[in-house]
Write a structure and sequence with these properties.
It is built from 1 helix and 9 strands. It is mainly β. Helices cover 5% and strands 57% of the residues. The chain has an 8-stranded antiparallel β-barrel with strand order 1-3-4-5-6-7-8-9. The longest helix has 8 residues, at 96-103.
């Protein structure tokens, strides 16, 4: 067997998202679909910082056991004014009692559940084009105020 290849990461930023009320689409057979509008937020890190523009959304699929499959598209605007399109998918799951508390909007320690996402970026800004060739992973948490992620570039 060949040697295992390393997986190195670099912290990019913390993404703190403000969301509106979910629009329930309803029962889609094996899950409930909700569209959650993104109304704003911030991202802050050593190389990138700025705001989240309103207008994005999470096409959230909630399975019968409470597992949430996230499918998000949003637009970042960095401090220079450059726009960055972000698309990510992920999963939030855990013990039934923890997921019930999250569904009620309670504060739950992030260590009590699993919340991960894979992100891709697109931008036309010359100084940020390295993002177009970057895949990031994120660890998330869901405080009552809205989702928050620590985002890491996979090197």
């Amino acid at each position: 067997m060949a040697d295992r290849l390393p997986l190195d990461t670099e912290f990019l930023f913390r993404l703190t998202i403000e969301v509106g009320a979910p629009a329930p689409v309803g029962d889609a057979g094996d899950h409930e679909l909700r569209i959650v509008p993104i109304t704003g937020g911030r991202f802050e890190g050593p190389r990138l910082s700025g705001t989240i523009l309103p207008g994005g959304a999470d096409w959230l699929r909630v399975e019968p056991d409470g597992t949430a499959r996230i499918d998000v598209r949003l637009t970042l605007q960095d401090a220079s004014g450059a726009l960055i399109y972000v698309q990510y998918q992920g999963v939030r799951t855990g013990p039934a009692a923890v997921l019930e508390r999250l569904a009620k909007g309670e504060a739950v320690p992030a260590s009590d559940y699993y919340f991960r996402a894979a992100m891709r970026f697109e931008t036309a800004a010359p100084a940020l084009r390295w993002l177009n060739r970057t895949i990031a992973i994120a660890t998330g948490q869901r405080p009552p105020s809205g989702p928050c992620y620590d985002v890491y570039a996979v090197k």
